[in-house]
Structures are given as C-alpha cells and as structure tokens.
Design goal:
- With about 425 residues, chain A is mostly beta strands.
- Chain A has 7 helices and 28 strands.
- Chain A has a 5-stranded mixed sheet with strand order 7-6-15-10-11.
- The radius of gyration of chain A is 24 Å and the shape is globular.
- With about 200 residues, chain B is mostly helical.
- Helices cover about 40% and strands about 5% of the residues of chain B.
- Chain B has 7 helices and 4 strands; from the N terminus they run αβαβαααααββ.
- Chain B is globular.
- The N and C termini of chain B lie far apart (about 60 Å).
- The chains are: A mainly beta (about 425), B mainly alpha (about 200).
- Chain B: It comes from Spirosoma endophyticum.
- Chain B: GO terms for molecular function: electron transfer activity; heme binding; metal ion binding.
- Chain B: Keywords: Heme, Iron, Metal-binding.
Chain lengths: ~425, ~200
C-alpha cells in the first residue's frame, strides 16, 4: 500500500509538534504525532516511507495511540476484482481472519449506512410486525460464535501460478456477535404456518434470499459485531444475517427487512444464480440443484503454497479445514502426490462450522513431489477429488460448491506451484 | 482482597447448585440446565416498535411467483423496447443480446457450445424478472424505474425470449400466469449430508 505517504499528507496539520516527535527527529519520519486541543500528544498512525536503520533501543518509541496500526513491513492485502475481494489465506496465521482482510462479495458495491437511521423490519406471517433499531437489537440477549463464511463460488484453477488466495480466498472466519434470530422470531410471534423467510439487504442491489424457517429457529444470528467491534461496512454494517455453515450469499448484509412466508420467493439469486447442474435424477437429465445451502467439507494447505518457495529440510505444512455440516474430525496430508496419507495435528479449538488449523511436520529432501490435504468431517464426509465431484455431478458441473482436494507441486528448485485441475 | 473474591466464587457456585436442584425439583430434565438463560425470559422484551402498514407497504417490494406483491400498472413489449434501448442496451446489448452486464436474451447457441444461461432458458419464474429489474436495475441508477417502466421492460424481455407474443399485455394478473421454459429445471438440494459425495 502506498497509503503511508498519503496518510502523512492527509493528516491535519499538527498545531505543535510533541516533544517525542522532536526527540525522534527526522530519522523517525515513520512516526506521526499530533497534539490535541487538550495539549495531549496522541499517536495517529505509525506511517512514513522508511524506518530508521539505527537501533530502536536507543531512542524513545511512539507514544500510546487510539487505534493500532499494522507494521509497515506487513503486506498482507485482499485481492479485489469488480465484484469481490479475496482473503490472503497464505499470509495469515491461526483460525481468525483480521476483519479488514475478510473477503468481500457484493452485488452493487458497499453502501454507506448511517446506523442511527437503519432499522430492521420483520413482518409477514407474524403476530406483531415490528421495527427494531440498532439500539433495540443490542439490548436483546446476545450471542457470539466463531464460524467461517464462504462464498459458494469459491474455486479457481487452470494455471500453476495461483495462490491460496486466488484458489479459494472467498472464505474467512470471524467471531460474530448479535442476537439470535430465534429471539426476534419469538418477539414478533412467528406464526406456525410460516415455513420460509425472505432476507433483504439495504444495498444498491437490495439483495434478497429466501431462507427455510428452520435455519432461523436453529442457529441464525442477526449480527452487529465482528471480532469484538462493529461489523465492517464490507461485511454488512450495521447489521447482517449470519447463517453458520451456509453459502455466503444467504448471509444477507446490510439487513433491512425479514418477511415471513409459507413459500420461497424465487429471487434472482436463488434461481438464475447460485444453482448448479445435477448429473441425473429420477426426473431426467439436465436438472439443476436449487437452495443448496450447506457448504461441504473442504481443506487447503496454505503453507507451503505459491508464491512462496521452500528450502530443503524440515517444513511444517500448515493449512485450514472446515465444514458447513459440523466439526472437522481429521485432516490427512499426503506428501507423495496422494499415494500415502498421514494424520495431521488439529489445533484446538475445533469448533462447529469453523475454520480449523492443521499442521503436519515433513522433511523435504529436495525431490520433486506433490503435497495435498484431505479433510473428514464429523458426518463422515471425506473431501473429494475433482474427479469424484465430476463423477457425482457430471461434466457440466458449474462453479458453485466445488471443494476438491487441492495439490501443490514442489519443484526441485523449491518453487511451489498449484496443480491445475481440468474438466472442461 | 483475595479472600473476598473467593467468597464471591462460593456464592456463585451455591447459586448454580440452587438453580440446578430447583429445575430438577420441578421435574425438568437435566438438559434444561443448558437452556437456563432462556427460561426466565419474559414473553416480550418490550424492545422495538410496532410497524405501521404504511411503512411496511413502502419497503415490501418483493414479488412472489404467485404474483403476490405485483403493483398496479401494465406493460407491452413495444413500449419496453424503447425503454430498453435507452436505459439497458449499453450494458446488455441491443435487444438484450449481450454486453458487459451479461446476456438476457438467447439468440441461439453456436454449434457445439452450451447455450448461455438467459431469461428464456434459465429463469423459472417470470415474476423474478419484474422483481429483479425493479429492485436492482439499471445498475448505475438502481430503483429509478417506475412500475409502468418495469412492466414494459418485463414484457419486452419475455417477448424477445419468445415466451409471450408482441401483443401480450403484462400486468399483475397476466405475469404470474406466464409459464417459463425453465419452470421444471430446478430441484431442491439433493445432497443429503453424511459420507455421500453429490
């Protein structure tokens, strides 16, 4: 990011430089400090074009600040396209995605919403149609849950120079906090005849999805917070629907309305989009699967992975595994192109419908090989190969709900390349 | 200091035990303890406010396949073509034949190639066309079309897709009756969970 220079330029002109800044002097151009009207020096960002080459133990550091900053040496960034932005899985550690690196997918941009003016309307087949503002929602009994969120169109392949971010960067994980939808259902008195509800966003696409009511009673959350703070605008500020384990599109952001109904609405996103071919059915060939909500189990090795090369010696193979149908039971890793498999260590906590970190220690002796991971979830589902998916879904299988075992080629010179999959 | 904290812990533990035995005394299952925080909930938290019919009407813009939600007004393909040329063709091509915003009308697939997914071959309900145009189009001015314009555009796209004739009038009564070629293409998720790969 070049924004470091801009940050300095865009700052309000300091009325008076603090003693610390002066002490730091020109050599610490990376430090920016302003003085408030209360004559209190505050750090407004650690920025600048260069860090001092000299000894940081020999000069005072930056004073305490109002918001943390990322070290200038860290370059992890999302990778945006016109319609989405992908999480840099290969640059992250552990199970949580920093909020500002959470993937984005939206259908007509990120809206700017004033939370003071935002309300959630719940109506339709209810006893009491109600409107809740943000303060109302925050006063209800709350719930927090760590869970992944994955776009169902999250598999890319076709060339060797793809990173985990390129291949499946449309998955991220946060701790989501909000009110259980069941709590609100109870409050408005959902009628027993209601079997579906429509969720509508307040963005420029006014996006809608129909959701079976059982998910609403089961574990749906009307989330207003992510990783300890308010939702990010890209994730639905000020309030979103969060459906653990279900395809990203159903987790409607910028939520403004829920309508209870006894049938689905057949919106554009659940008919002409987010539907995928089925190989053969009792009703003949050429059919398409609709309302395919659950994310099947998947894993990927995020280290070693393109674009980062490796050196011979001990390598801790690291990755993420998850399932929209429950907990991860085990992850197996192969370092010989799938001939043999070894059980990886799972990092606690292993949560329901959550990214789970795995590790496997491997000694690479410098020979060319392929490494890959394969997850098994608690329902007994074993992550398939692309060939198994093709066999199950037929050659016309679309781009939705693809969760194949993903292999990395390790070249003799230490380069790590994606092994492209082809099926068309 | 330490002692008093310890004391507080003891009191807390005692309360838990009391709650526990209380529920059992009431003849409830042990599993009721898992719902201990919901049991004392009031019938209502008294939060939020009742929605008025007027504000519901303002926001309730969805259209169901049975036509529920369709507004007054009507449209024809001829009137729709003029609006389409003016407001939609830049992104979807002349007559919806394709552009940066995608193809809406199939002109017939090239031999050996799969047909592009369009309204005529992949949209199971005509009501979705109205609903989606009204809520989200045009992309650069979403929500700017009148109901009459949306009816006209819907009629134009259905006619261009050879689903209705060019004299057909599309309104709240006729639109839900339009049978789309893709009506029977879709099945609910056939994956059943468990070990099976589908």
């Amino acid at each position: 990011m070049k924004s470091t220079d801009n940050q300095v330029t865009n700052m309000p002109t300091p009325k008076k430089l603090s003693r610390r800044t002066l002490l730091g002097g020109a050599a610490t151009a990376a430090v920016a400090v302003v003085q408030t009207s209360f004559a209190k020096a505050v750090q407004i960002g650690i920025s600048g074009t260069s860090f001092p080459a000299d000894d940081p133990t020999k000069r005072p550091g930056v004073p305490p600040g109002e918001r943390g900053t990322r070290s200038l040496f860290e370059k992890a960034a999302k990778k945006p396209s016109d319609i989405s932005s992908r999480t840099p899985l290969q640059d992250l550690y552990g199970m949580l995605t920093p909020s500002d690196l959470h993937f984005e997918r939206h259908h007509n941009g990120v809206p700017a919403i004033d939370p003071a003016k935002h309300e959630l309307l719940i109506h339709g087949m209810v006893e009491k149609p109600m409107v809740f503002n943000l303060a109302d929602l925050k006063r209800f009994p709350s719930v927090s849950r760590i869970a992944f969120l994955e776009c169902s169109g999250n598999f890319r392949t076709g060339k060797e120079t793809l990173s985990p971010q390129d291949i499946c960067g449309l998955t991220s994980q946060s701790e989501w906090t909000g009110v259980k939808l069941s709590t609100l259902f109870r409050e408005v008195g959902v009628r027993p005849v209601a079997t579906w509800f429509l969720a509508e966003g307040g963005d420029a696409a006014v996006m809608t999805r129909s959701i079976p009511i059982r998910k609403g009673w089961d574990d749906a959350i009307i989330a207003y917070a992510q990783n300890g703070e308010a939702l990010r605008p890209e994730q639905g500020y000020p309030v979103r629907l969060f459906l653990p384990g279900w395809e990203g599109n159903t987790n409607v952001k910028w939520l403004r309305r829920l309508e209870l109904s006894d049938q689905p609405y057949m919106t554009r996103e659940e008919t002409s989009k987010y539907t995928e071919p089925i190989k053969d059915t009792e009703r003949g060939p050429g059919k398409f699967r609709q309302f395919s909500f659950d994310i099947d189990a998947r894993s990927i090795i995020t280290f070693p992975a393109y674009p980062n090369p490796v050196q011979p010696g001990w390598i801790e193979i690291r990755g993420l595994a998850w399932s929209g149908r429950g907990k991860v039971s085990r992850v197996d890793v192969s370092t010989d192109a799938g001939k043999s498999w070894h059980s990886a260590t799972l990092q606690d906590p292993i949560l329901d419908k959550a990214h789970t970190a795995f590790r496997y220690l491997w000694q690479w002796k410098g020979d060319e090989t392929e490494i890959m991971s394969r997850v098994t979830d608690e329902t007994g589902y074993i992550q398939p190969t692309i060939g198994q998916l093709l066999e199950a879904r037929g050659p016309d299988m679309g781009g939705y709900h693809l969760n194949p075992i993903t292999a990395w080629q390790i070249k003799r010179d230490g380069r790590v390349l994606h092994r492209p999959e082809t099926w068309k | 200091m330490k002692k008093s904290r310890y004391g507080a812990c003891l009191v807390g533990a005692f309360l838990l035990l009391t709650l526990d035995s209380g529920y059992r005394a009431n003849g409830q299952e042990r599993s009721a303890i898992g719902r201990v925080d919901t049991l004392p909930w009031p019938a209502s938290f008294g939060l939020g406010r009742p929605a008025t019919q007027a504000e519901i009407a303002l926001l309730d813009i969805d259209i169901r396949p049975d036509g529920k939600g369709l507004p007054a007004g009507s449209g024809t393909a001829t009137a729709g073509k003029a609006i389409f040329t003016l407001k939609c063709a830049a992104c979807h091509g002349t007559d919806g034949g394709g552009g940066p915003g995608g193809t809406l009308v199939t002109s017939g697939a090239a031999s050996g190639k799969r047909a592009e997914k369009t309204i005529g071959n992949y949209w199971p309900y005509a009501t979705t066309v109205f609903d989606y145009i009204r809520r989200a189009m045009p992309f650069n001015q979403p929500g700017s079309l009148t109901n009459e314009e949306v009816y006209n555009l819907t009629a134009f796209l259905l006619n261009a897709s050879h689903i209705i004739n060019d004299k057909a009038v599309i309104n709240a009564q006729t639109l839900p009756k339009v049978v789309m070629p893709a009506k029977n293409l879709f099945l609910p998720d056939d994956r059943r969970g468990g070990p099976e790969i589908r």
